[in-house]
Specification:
By secondary structure, the chain is an alpha/beta fold. It is about 35% helix and about 20% strand. It folds into two domains: about 140 residues, NAD(P)-binding Rossmann-like Domain (Rossmann fold, 3-Layer(aba) Sandwich), CATH 3.40.50; about 270 residues, Dihydrodipicolinate Reductase, domain 2. The protein has a nine-stranded mixed sheet with strand order 14-13-12-11-7-10-9-8-15, sandwiched between helices. It has a six-stranded parallel sheet with strand order 3-2-1-4-5-6. The chain is globular. The protein binds nicotinamide-adenine-dinucleotide.
């Protein structure tokens, strides 16, 4: 279904994110007919380009980073590029602002949804908001999209919220967390709230524990300076993993509407217990065995760095539903494979009628975010054959393409979904300011404690599953991490 005609200004339109994600996502939506050709995209960045040169850059970005699959008719690229314009602008100065205002006024056609994507470093958010306001470009209907990182701690996040609030109402602000745009993440809500099967069991009585793993194979190349100041806790846990945790743990919202969902997520964050030091393992990757890839400290060129490239932690949510159920989270760089998954591990049956030799079995619901988005339910059945009652665990596997046919084989990128939601004015999959602040309020004391204790991360091998200490974190509870596949 096409969205209303819009004009989207991408501040930072020549940057890495715009080229790798935003522009290819818009092109895909254009190919699918969701973005019509009476909409417009304006790249706005520091580089001194004209529209022709920018269109060439956009073309190259789409060729390089556009997703495979889907259908795109010949000539579509030319039609798409016709919608693209460029203004050279300085967020901190006056250059380009009247040109941008002039271009916005000049674009022909009916009223369009107006959106401004802040795909620039967060230090420019305030300047952009202020100048948009001064130049009268962003009225009460306009929307702004802001990228992560949203602050470095609670203080900076509050300051950022305050700055944006001077010029925009909360209903106009779309804070992106691209994990929320993933098809399986939305499916998680469908699984929980559209089926009678799971929700009655979704609590401490039936669930033994929940594991969330976000494993990457890459190191910190290209983002060394940022990462050495951030670390895995700020870069991954405070935002992406926290959002996944909220969707898993929240109470059913009354409606699938922005504030109803976000209110429930906020309650989860506020119910998080403090995490004692013994329940946290921080790690730094070592140089690869063949010496071809540097270790973390060499990578960030800081031999004294105490920043973690891996973190595993156990946490508890202090409420009626989850009392006593641990949540184990881990994320890291330079791990064995690129995997993101949530595993909901149910308790063993209270009594085995098949005797001790049948072993222990439990159901595991796995929500796979990458590489192949899908949902898998592990069930225990009888092993076929005449060998008596031997039990075996098998997956009831449901990759979307198998279940729904080739149509579903092409899973849209999260940015496609999220940008279209901005145009539709649907904030459900975006973080509200108070959510972000609550997440920092939980994260800050943990990080402060590392500083006070002068905590140093342990080392782990490149290409491994992380430090052995992280395995011990679960072993001592009689549990184990799922294999990083
Ligand atoms: P980048 O350095 O590649 O691009 C920065 C862009 O900002 C360029 O277009 C540049 O011209 C523009 N810019 C810089 N100073 C400017 C000024 N004074 N006036 C106008 N334009 C100016 O950065 P990026 O990787 O594209 O990241 C952009 C934002 O998105 C950052 O906040 C980053 O943290 C966030 N982000 C990036 C990624 C990613 O994969 N690249 C992922 C998540 C979030």
């Amino acid at each position: 279904i096409p969205v209303d005609p819009f004009v989207l200004v991408i501040f930072g339109g020549t940057g890495d994110l715009a080229r790798r994600k935003i522009l290819p996502a818009l092109f895909r939506r254009f190919c699918d007919g969701q973005m019509e050709d009476n909409s417009a995209i304006i790249g706005a960045a520091r580089s001194d380009l004209d529209t022709a040169a920018y269109r060439q850059m956009v073309r190259e970005a789409i060729v390089e980073f556009g997703q495979e699959g889907g259908s795109c008719e010949a000539g579509t690229m030319e039609a798409f590029l016709e919608t693209v314009h460029y203004v050279s602008i300085d967020a901190r100065g006056e250059t380009g602002w009247s040109e941008l205002a002039g271009l916005l006024d000049k674009l022909p056609g009916e009223e369009r949804v107006r959106a401004f994507y802040f795909s620039v470093g967060p230090s420019l958010f305030g300047d952009l908001a202020e100048r948009l306001h001064c130049h009268g470009m962003a009225g009460s209907e306009a929307r702004i999209v802001v990228e992560k990182p949203f602050g470095h701690d609670l203080g900076t996040a509050k300051a950022l919220n305050k700055t944006l609030a001077q010029h925009f109402d909360e209903s106009q602000i779309y804070r992106i967390d691209h994990y929320l745009g993933k098809e399986t993440v939305q499916n998680l809500m469908a699984i929980r709230f559209a089926n009678m099967l799971f929700e009655p069991l979704w609590n401490a009585q039936y669930i033994d524990h929940i594991q969330i793993t976000v494993a990457e194979t890459v190191g910190v190349a290209g983002r060394e300076d940022y990462y050495d100041h951030a670390g895995a806790m700020r870069d991954m846990v405070q935002n992406h993993i926290m959002q996944l945790l909220c969707l898993i743990a929240m109470e059913p919202p009354a409606k699938f509407e922005p504030d109803a969902v976000r209110d429930e997520k906020l309650k989860v964050i506020r119910a998080l217990e403090d995490v004692p030091a013994k329940d946290i393992v921080r790690g730094q990757y070592l140089e690869s065995d063949d010496g071809s890839k540097p270790g973390f400290r060499e990578h960030v060129q800081n031999p004294e760095s105490t920043t973690e490239s891996f973190i595993a932690l156990k946490l508890h949510i202090s409420n009626w539903r989850w009392a006593g159920t641990p949540f184990y989270l881990r994320t890291g760089k330079r791990l064995k494979s690129r995997t993101s998954e949530i595993a909901v591990v149910f308790k063993d049956a209270p009594h085995s009628i098949f005797g001790a030799e049948a072993g222990r079995h439990c159901n595991i619901l796995t929500i796979v975010l990458q590489p192949n988005e899908g949902i898998e339910l592990g069930v225990t059945i009888k092993e076929p054959g005449p060998g008596g009652m031997r039990l075996v665990d098998v997956p009831l596997d449901m990759t979307f393409s198998e279940a729904l046919g080739p149509e579903a084989e092409f899973v849209p990128d999260a940015y496609e979904r999220l940008i279209m939601d901005v145009i539709r004015g649907n904030q459900t999959l975006f973080m509200r300011g108070d959510e972000v602040e609550a997440a920092w309020a939980w994260t800050d004391p943990i990080i402060a404690e590392w500083g006070a204790r002068e905590d140093t991360p342990v080392a782990y091998d490149s290409g491994s599953s992380g430090p052995v200490e992280a395995l011990a974190l679960m072993h001592r509870d009689g549990r184990r991490w799922r294999e990083i596949r």
